[in-house]
């Protein structure tokens, strides 16, 4: 099986608290997954479970405490700022398109800048042709953005434009962190549909990070459910969301709250008491909320167990404890 991107045992420990009462949380704990060419892979889970941290590490904005990243089976540097070649192949689309574009530049100038920065071409006519071609993929044209500032486009249009911009350098993987939470509910499906189109028409792989299990179900091939830094269940989306195995996935299906549209990537970090307590919990992090928790769950970290096609991190599925 061909893997385009793989992460192995990724761990990120953050120090939190004041100078005098510092403690540590493992925001991402031993996370491993891979993405195949032409595949949509979703990372889902409630706020603060480690989705964005995982994306930041893959994109090189954060260094992991430990772990490996492989691109087309080759290990790549986990150091910040050492990823030029890799970053051409892996592009990001963020939650708030208004923050991804410099408000002082026109959208076409931002596109030209990307083209020149990545040395795609230095010929203006060729650049316009390329921009128009990529914009058409997302349902816009060069004329729609020409001479217009980001504030003159709607959120939906600008999010499409940011997807088109990421396509300028022909990436093979797109990482999108809550790309639809700021877009009008009525337009969400059209953005999500775009990912499906990019996958089938140009063979792009997408890591779709979301709170929204409905769009995740609709568009993904496989899904990983995270809880307090751990992937607790991962497999084909029909299996995981229709026949969830992990008690957390079952609960999540009914109760996942919406993403906070005001949330920023470089937000001030706050952590709730419950979150903190769960991060520090021994054994299974979900045991405190789990309706079917057993004694063992409070003491031992569950193993990752393969049930049919699905990986589940739960003691219930461990034959040794039956
Ligand atoms: N720079 C940092 N310093 C300390 N703690 C951090 C930092 N960044 C994230 N965290 C903590 O790590 C945990 C995971 O955060 P992360 O942003 O990855 O979650 P998320 O799943 O993306 O949440 P959301 O759905 O709200 O965007 C949280 O408890 C968060 O408070
Ligand atoms: Mg996030």
Give the SSE layout:
Layout: E1 5-16, E2 23-35, E3 40-44, H1 51-59, E4 66-71, E5 74-75, H2 84-89, E6 90-93, H3 97-100, H4 107-117, H5 124-137, H6 142-145, H7 155-167, E7 173-177, H8 185-202, E8 205-210, H9 213-219, E9 222-227, E10 230-236, H10 237-242, H11 247-255, H12 273-280, H13 295-299, E11 304-307, E12 310-313
Parallel strand pairs: 3-8, 3-9, 6-7, 7-8
Antiparallel strand pairs: 1-2, 1-4, 4-5, 9-10, 10-12, 11-12
Helix pairs in contact: 4-5, 5-7
The protein binds adenosine-5'-triphosphate (ATP) and magnesium ion.
Please, could you describe this protein's structure?
The protein has 322 residues and is of the alpha/beta class. It has one domain (5-321): Rossmann fold (3-Layer(aba) Sandwich). Helix content is 35%, strand content 23%. It has helices at 51-59, 84-89, 97-100, 107-117, 124-137, 142-145, 155-167, 185-202, 213-219, 237-242, 247-255, 273-280, 295-299; strands spanning 5-16, 23-35, 40-44, 66-71, 74-75, 90-93, 173-177, 205-210, 222-227, 230-236, 304-307, 310-313. An eight-stranded mixed beta sheet has the order 6-7-8-3-9-10-12-11, sandwiched between helices. Strands 2-1-4-5 form a four-stranded antiparallel beta sheet. Strand 7, helix 8 and strand 8 (205-210) form a beta-alpha-beta unit. Helix 5 packs across helix 7. It is globular and about 70 Å long. The model has no long low-confidence stretch (mean pLDDT 90). Bound molecules: adenosine-5'-triphosphate and magnesium ion. Magnesium ion is lined by residues 51-52, 177.
């Amino acid at each position: 099986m061909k893997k385009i991107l793989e992460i192995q045992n990724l761990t990120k420990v953050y120090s939190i608290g004041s100078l005098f009462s510092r403690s540590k949380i493992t925001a991402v704990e031993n996370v491993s997954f891979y993405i195949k060419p032409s595949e949509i892979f979703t990372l889902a889970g409630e706020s603060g479970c480690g989705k964005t941290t995982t994306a930041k590490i893959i994109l090189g904005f954060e260094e992991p405490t430990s772990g490996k990243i492989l691109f087309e089976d080759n290990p790549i540097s986990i150091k910040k700022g050492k990823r030029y070649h890799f970053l051409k192949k892996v592009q990001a689309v963020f939650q708030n398109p208004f923050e991804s574009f410099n408000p002082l530049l026109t959208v076409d100038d931002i596109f030209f800048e990307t083209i020149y920065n990545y040395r795609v071409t230095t010929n203006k006519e060729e650049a316009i042709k390329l921009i128009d071609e990529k914009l058409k993929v997302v349902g816009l044209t060069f004329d729609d953005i020409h001479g217009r500032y980001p504030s003159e486009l709607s959120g939906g249009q600008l999010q499409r434009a940011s997807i088109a911009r990421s396509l300028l350098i022909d990436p093979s993987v797109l990482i999108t962190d809550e790309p639809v939470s700021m877009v009008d509910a009525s337009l969400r499906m059209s953005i999500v549909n775009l990912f499906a189109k990019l996958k089938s028409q140009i063979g792009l792989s997408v890591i779709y990070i979301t709170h929204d299990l409905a769009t995740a179900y609709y568009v993904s091939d496989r899904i990983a459910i995270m809880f307090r830094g751990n992937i607790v269940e991962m497999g084909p989306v029909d299996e995981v969301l229709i026949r969830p195995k992990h008690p957390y996935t079952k609960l999540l299906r009914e109760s996942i709250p919406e993403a906070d549209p005001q949330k920023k990537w470089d937000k001030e970090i706050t952590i709730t008491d419950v979150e903190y307590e769960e991060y520090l919990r021994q054994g299974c992090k979900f045991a405190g909320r789990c309706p079917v928790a057993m004694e063992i769950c409070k003491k031992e970290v569950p193993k990752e167990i393969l049930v049919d096609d699905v990986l589940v991190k739960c003691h219930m599925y461990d034959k040794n404890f039956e």
